[in-house]
Amino acid sequence: MENTEKKVLLSIRNLDVVFGNKKNSFKAVDNVSFDIYKGETVSLVGESGSGKTTIGRAIVRINPCSNGEILYDGKRISGKLSKKDDREVVKKIQMIFQDPSASLNERATIEYIISEGLTNFHLYKDEKERMKKVETITKEVGLLPEHLTRYPHEFSGGQRQRVGIARSIVMEPEFIIADEPISALDVSIRAQVLNLLKKFQKERGLTYLFIAHDLSIVRFISDRIVVIYRGKIMEIAEAEELFAHPLHPYTKSLMSAIPVPDPAIEKDKKLLVYDPKTMHNYETEKPELVDLGNGHMVYASPSELEKYKELRFGK
Description:
The protein is α/β, with parallel strands linked by helices.
């Protein structure tokens, strides 16, 4: 991203999220730290259960932080907030959910769903302005004015996801968390939804945290990629850097799962399986997330670090 003056918009510092009580607890997010700069798309990638969505939900204050903090524009937004600050966070940070059918109220019309946030935060002067905002955003996401009187069940998955996007964008947020927004959609619709998100980013200067389990999807929309495994960050790098020089074995295993369009190559392709027990010796050496330079960070022990440096930069 051509941006000499990068401004940190969102900062996650030493974040832990623990579910359950002391006797029976599960640490879903373990000491996670990374920054997101204004105007960029950061993708958080890992398999199911790796803690991606938990982090997204911690940012929008659905999941409480057990340790660490989340800062937005330099202000702490995790923990207890005043009612005014809480409303400010909701207005500035919006979330697009994975399953559009589960996140839309089936009993409400599309008009009601899209304008719910506007109404709750009273982001309009009068009824005429409210309707204008709803109609404008409906058109921008590629839906028709007559769709406003209909209900979610009357739409396809792709159209429902457009409603979800419209509901977020109409609030004029600065930062959007897109939680696997295309995984429930047909392949033919996915590119349309991604292009729509890119269009809004360009026009409105939006910043995205894009959550996905598939590296091939995020390659073309991400400025940077954060790879997460069982609540810990394994690797962070700019998208092209990561694809050109994947270092951590878990990142390599995710890449080996990307389908190849050529059936002959796909048939003979070897899937790399990540097995931390046999691949690392962390009993004798303590691993940590280290910057190799060029913003490429990798979770490694001291001896692994030497190996990664050699891999990346040669001897």
